[in-house]
Amino acid sequence: MTTPSDPTNSNPVPIPIPPNDPTDAQVRALAQQLQAMSTPSYTAAALLKGVVVSSDLTTQPSTASITLMGSSTQIDNVLIADNVTAVAGDVVNVTMQGSNVQITGRVAAGAGDNGGWITPTLSSGFSQNGDSQGNVQYRLIQDNGSAKMQWRGCAAVSNSNTTVVSGLSSTYRPSSQRKLIVPRGMGNGNAVLDIQLTFTTSGTVVLAGNTYTFPAHTHSLGTSATENAAHDHDSYSPYTGLSYLTTTENESHAHAMGNSTGTSGSTALPDWVSFNGVEYFL
């Protein structure tokens, strides 16, 4: 083992190296290890912009086909990040890292895209913008990785038809029917208190509760059960309100009117039914 000299001392005195000090080879190995740790072994991600050609928000995870800005080459099966809604025509942020491509956000809506809102054709007996609450519209969005339908607007009601919307494409149909209580107008009279919208797996929106039938009922007048049936009373006091009176106890007599019965009836139609705030997972 060599001992270094003290250069400030004219009479150098050897300084011993502790036996635990690293050698030059150990120092070089440590430096190489640190350098390797500071050099990333992965490909850096690139942030680009793209245009959505088409998308499927009903799959999990959702995917889209896109073209990158400045390119006409279509890239399919691009993953869409949770809570990002991307439909055809939208300009989106795209992260590329090696062969992995993902849509991470939406920059701008495409031409004609009103936030994804679609205005359906309403069935006979219903018209748009009921109660000045806007047109009935729907859209499909992402909510924490799951597809969700949202509705807004209001339909005016003019007859007893119960199918408000029909023909929704399979993309917008729930996996099982969804039923929700919604607001309604009472402008056509005594409308029922609750109106229910049913969203079916066949692509229809059905209104329930706009016509209720009440059971038959009876009005009791306190007279004999059968009109003009002979009977007597146990008291001789006059009975006001009867067609025939008797002042003699137990005298046989008859009344001109028996019991009357009511008839069943139905409530009036609501004049509008609101879709505002309706949403459900597919």
Gist of the model:
The protein is mainly beta. It has one helix and 17 strands. Strand 1 and strand 2 form a beta hairpin.
Give the SSE map:
Blueprint: H1 24-38, E1 46-56, E2 63-68, E3 74-80, E4 91-97, E5 100-108, E6 126-128, E7 137-143, E8 146-152, E9 154-157, E10 163-165, E11 178-182, E12 195-199, E13 205-208, E14 218-219, E15 260-261, E16 272-274, E17 279-281
Parallel strand pairs: 3-5
Antiparallel strand pairs: 1-2, 1-4, 2-3, 4-5, 6-9, 7-8, 8-17, 9-16, 10-13, 11-12, 12-13, 14-15
Structure description:
The protein is mainly β. Among the domains are: 46-108, OB fold (Dihydrolipoamide Acetyltransferase, E2P); 126-212 and 268-281, Sandwich (Immunoglobulin-like), CATH 2.60.40. The chain has one helix spanning 24-38; strands spanning 46-56, 63-68, 74-80, 91-97, 100-108, 126-128, 137-143, 146-152, 154-157, 163-165, 178-182, 195-199, 205-208, 218-219, 260-261, 272-274, 279-281. A 5-stranded mixed beta barrel has the order 1-2-3-5-4. A hairpin with a 2-residue loop joins β4 and β5. Mean pLDDT is 76; it is low at 212-225 and 239-246.
Keywords for this entry:
elongated, OB fold (Dihydrolipoamide Acetyltransferase, E2P), Immunoglobulin-like, 282 residues, mainly beta
